[in-house]
Automatic annotation (TrEMBL):
Species whose genome carries this gene: Malurus cyaneus samueli
Its job: Ligand for members of the frizzled family of seven transmembrane receptors.
Family: Belongs to the Wnt family.
Subcellular location(s) per record: Secreted, Extracellular space, Extracellular matrix
Protein name: Protein Wnt
Amino acid sequence: FFLFFFKVLQGAAIAGLGVLLNASRPSLPRVGARGSPRAPGAALPLPSRRYMGAVGSSRVMCDNVPGLVSRQRQLCRRHPEAMLSIGRGVAAWTAECQHQFRRHRWDCNALERGQRLLGSRESAFVHAISSAGVVFAITRACSQGELKSCSCDPKKKGSAKDSKGHFDWGGCSDNIDYGIKFARAFVDAKERKGKDARALMNLHNNRAGRKVGVHPVECKCHGVSGSCTLRTCWLAMADFRKTGDYLWKKYNGAIQVVMNQDGTGFTVANKKFKKPTKNDLVYFESSPDYCIRDRDVGSLGTAGRVCNQTSRGMDSCEVMCCGRGYDTSRVSRMTKCECKFHWCCAVRCQDCLEVVDIHTCKAPKSAGWTSRT
């Protein structure tokens, strides 16, 4: 759903959406992630006449995005400018998913081709990181003044105390609460229409992803020669890579579960393992080996994937190629070499021609799609 929705936003619909956003968004002063929030009580500019036509345009745009349920369409019409932020969030979590799985047989690229996953631990990771990506994008858009419905965190005012002493809240704290609230309403809407095990699993993993947002306090010192006698601090989201790294650890420790007898929740499949917490990822079905292309399990196979001949990990040619062997080709490429530091302050390198061997997995004898139906 998310990849398909993102492609719609990035494709033909994006031009119309841009016109819509420019027409519907009042000319608010832009608020930087570290800037000062708009003064309390400051009057907002009246929307232009183009806004009236944009209201109808938002309905047309939202009604033509495939895969949305009624609640999502309502949110789309009410907050059309947020849809572009969600598109950015999808781009962020997709890139992060591909980074985390770059050395594995399943590398997250199947999602771009519309392949549906089983209720596996890969599906658990995708739901968690997609939910986290929407929180990240909406929260960042609030801080940057891109959304009419939110701004900086209004609760971070006055003074507070941490391990280093007292400080004053200032600048623009990321409004993580709004990001979580919006992501829960939008992302969970599709799953709340279902009452089966898959819906419960997805809702649990969505929530686990929303709870990740690392929110450290950043401060600026004031005083003679930076003595830090006074501090001004704000909450700021960490880089999304930290979210990906955290969820990768949760993926590796994901817990297999089964539905309970009354169908309202789940319990661990293996009684030897602990009951999952709200922060754990859960899954119902064991992962396939992803060696061959199979639509039913969301596998593109590993034919043509680059493998590491010297590795003993998941990216080794033996593991990545599933024992089918690999082909080796010699290629030439330009690299930076003989880099030297020059005072002050530059690093200058030479362009060198490098010849390397690239190893790619052989295809199985039958390289076409397989299907159980």
